[in-house]
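Lab notebook, page 48
Experiment: co-folding of the full assembly
Goal: obtain a model of how the components sit together before planning crosslinking
Operator: M.T.
Materials (sequences as entered):
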Amino acid sequence: MELIKPGTKIDFIRLAPWAIGLSWTLILIGLMSFVLRGGPNYGIDFAGGTMMHVRFAQKPPIGDIRHVLEPLGFGDVTIQDFGSGTAGSAEFLIRLPLKEAQMETANKQVISALQQKFGENSFEMLRIEMVGPRVGAELRTRAILAVLFSTVMMGAYIWFRFDVRFGIGAAVALLHDVLITAGALSIVNYEFDLTVVAALLTIVGFSVNDTVIISDRIRENMRKRPRDALAAIINSSINETLSRTVLTTGTAILVILSLFFLGGNVIHGFAFALLVGFSVGTYSSIYVSSPIVLYLQRGTARRQR
Amino acid sequence: MKSSNLLYRVLLVVGLTVMAVVCLIPTLVPNLPDTWKGLLPDRRVHLGLDLQGGTHLVLTVDVAKAIESALERNLDDVKREATEAKVGVEHAERRGNRLVVGLTSADSRTPFTDLIKERFPNLAIETSSTVDSRPTFELAFTKREEQHLRDFALEQSLETIRNRIDQFGVTEPTIQRQGTQDILVQLPGIQDPQRAKDLIGRTAQLEFKLLSTVPDADNSVAGTQPLPAGTQVLSGEPETGTGRARRVQYLVESKTLMTGDTISDATVRPATQMEGPYVALELNARGAKLFEELTSRSVGRRLAIVLDNTVYSAPVIRERIGGGRASITGNFDIKEARDLAIVLRAGALPAPVSIAEERTVGPSLGKDSIRQGITSFLVGGGLVIVFMLFYYKFAGVLADMALILNVVFLVAVLAAFQATLTLPGLAGIVLTLGMAVDANVLINERIREELRLGKTARAAIENGYERALPAILDSNITTFLSGLILFQFGSGPVKGFAVTLCIGIVTTVFTAVFCTRVVYDYLLSSRQIRTVSV
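Observation: model returned without errors.
Model output:
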């Protein structure tokens, strides 16, 4: 069976200007979403605060829960419907903002308030997470450093294995993928938490794979056909590896879809980030890193003349 | 390729596979008969807190408080030694992390500095000034002493918390230092996280103090008149059952007569008809002597038993009490009494601790997560297997075998290292399934290209593997690198993901490249195939 016929010749480079326009549009839409939402929607891992995941045997109106929690004076409490389970049960995420003085007693207070209103055995605490201000700030710094560091390290590795043009191309492509994925998360309003950062780092690792494969082929073809123009070589290299690109991304997306739909709502954000990142990562190895190599080459050629 | 070489490679693959299966048995079959247990490795995959349920806590030890109370103890010693050495001290007090000592006259200056140098090498004179010919000194711990106190406070807190958890009864807890001021505590599978938190976080500073006998104590307590010198107000336990929690206020003498470090044992006594359950204390020799002295001196007065600045009871001392026995009564049920006995036995924390991070997962969520993780693993893996079969036919069968072997090796390595499997870790295994076939795809696409160029099966396979290898290695190394960074960065569940991702890469390269090649070489050498089906 063959999805991509051998001898396929799509002129990817001709479409590159359009692709660059598309990339910028996607990045800007993402950034716009950040601006409109007033910054990233940090989960409690990074913002600090308390999160409680409750399962009610019988779904209560969300307003009732809000009504119970309001008098406790936590300020801006958010209650999110987290889907329903079997036999009419319903799950909610209750999130309390960071208030140092109340941190340690907060979940006790919420539990006893819910017990008074709904009865002792009407609900079950599935998860409680509490992150203090110091830990939150630490995790935030480390997350940003980890993503930046891995991007730079991938660029450096490609530089070492190929040359500086490929290295820059790879690093820009990774930054592109991370930005678009983060933007997509902001648009659908998923929280940024530790698992999302794990997803971003995985995306960096996966996206660089494609870049490596295509770069490897470009280098091989440059040796085989030293007289051909770089644009032509890049084009045929992308075409020759296209079948592999489609297959690998395809199988990866297959398992991610399975995680997204069947893996449970705890890792929904993680699976969503992977889904977006892997798709964008594949596109960026074709349309971001390779054209950058081409432009850098043309730049040096012009200077040499 | 020589056949002897091939033989070694076949043996290697078969040997490793057998080892992997052996490593897997304890994980897959938890209830093995005893005769088998002796033969098999006693290592299995541990489930992370997010899968089996449990509590993860990061506790911050308030080391500054420990330094302050050490300074407080030194203050008493400085005063006493100065008096003994006849150095005129006008006033001495602690301000923050400094001791401020004012002398009566300039003549005392040299004797005082000599005294500090000789008797208190752990204290350093930070500043000295003279007001109205009276010298004033500011003393602080030396840097080394301060560091020592910090370490000691952290070590002792760790030890105390470990004792408490051991007595509480948690199987396989993790208790370790983290950084310069934190303690990491992981309690797998506990049913009542709130109770465990209360038990761990309690300072449990037990003090015996006398109630003040000033005539109008009530006014001082109510705040309508200033507190008499050397006294303080402490509240009693909240009274239960009255709806609103009202606390009795006590006026006590500030001086602590005895502390909890004199306790050698604490046990719970069940409730009687007269009173609720209480905690019986057994004192060590020093404590017994102190207690006897203290009770004989103060017959008729009330003795406040204070735990973490709350008065539990304040009985009247009726007679001298010898024998080193005391008891704490109060409004508690049997559970609370038991926890109280545990913290008294395990000793007080040298400094207050606060919870900096908590992650608790209930058992039912863990079960759901395992079920969902396995479902997505089976469905995702199944889809990939079917797809490869259709796309590459025979080469697909090989890739699928490599994939299954890959999962066997991956989980076996996790078991052999006794690694912890978390929900993101499970997701990492699923993801490995999707990304592992990349190596096979690369090889097979190359073989197809070579075949199209008109090469023989043998040449196409050899070239295919050879040409695909650099790209496979590069792409796996980069993913491995980002996995390493993730491992450095992450905590708990995320670390679990990094671990499965990295191990998955190693097993992928082995199974997808090495193992499949062995099969091809075997088939080629025994001339079972002339053509190759990809």
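Interpretation: The CA atoms of residues 156 and 295 of chain A lie 19 Å apart.
Next step: discuss with group before ordering constructs.
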